[in-house]
């Protein structure tokens, strides 16, 4: 299965934020969009970094609540690892697992076209496995 198939089902919406916005803006955005990550972009939508709920936990624990009023660009992971829509989902899963993160921005020809989480990929793989098992059962019992 390709990442394009994952995006076709989950949609192309990406929560993006400028690097000079406050951590609080990222937190309220993640809460209202019900996502665990935000892609940090420049004014032309070029990808600069990624900032996730894991980062929020880490900086709140180490710096306290005042960190909420500091720019997200100070805390993001710069130059995130990205994938393309033609990448195979298992390769993307392997990368996420190897580097121990759960989000991957999707860029085609340098343009941000979506983001996938480990949950998006795993749940669609499970659906596919169940579908194939059901088809196999139907085939066997029909004989
Ligand atoms: P996550 O498990 O996705 O919440 O992220 C765990 C840590 O990895 C956080 O510090 C993120 O900023 C960082 N991170 C998340 N996604 C990526 C990525 N695609 N490339 C590099 N770092 C990432």
Considering the chains and any ligands shown, give keywords for the structure:
143 residues; alpha+beta; CBS-domain; 4-stranded mixed beta sheet; two-stranded antiparallel ribbon; 5 helices; elongated; binds adenosine monophosphate
CATH architecture: Roll
Number of beta strands: 6
Strand order of the largest sheet: 1-2-3-4
Uncertain residue segments: none
Number of helices: 5
CATH-defined superfamily: CBS-domain
Would you list the SSEs in sequence order as H and E? HEHEEHEHEEH
Question: What ligand species are in this complex?
Answer: adenosine monophosphate
Strand residues, percent: 15-25%
CA radius of gyration: 18 Å
Could you walk me through the main structural features you see in this protein, from its secondary elements to its overall organization?
The protein is of the alpha+beta class. The chain has one domain: CBS-domain (Roll). It has 5 helices and 6 strands; from the N terminus they run H-E-H-E-E-H-E-H-E-E-H. The chain has a 4-stranded mixed sheet with strand order 1-2-3-4. The protein has a two-stranded antiparallel ribbon with strand order 5-6. A hairpin with a 2-residue loop joins strand 5 (103-108) and strand 6. It is elongated, with a radius of gyration of 18 Å. The structure holds adenosine monophosphate. Adenosine monophosphate (AMP) binds next to strand 3, helix 3 and strand 5.
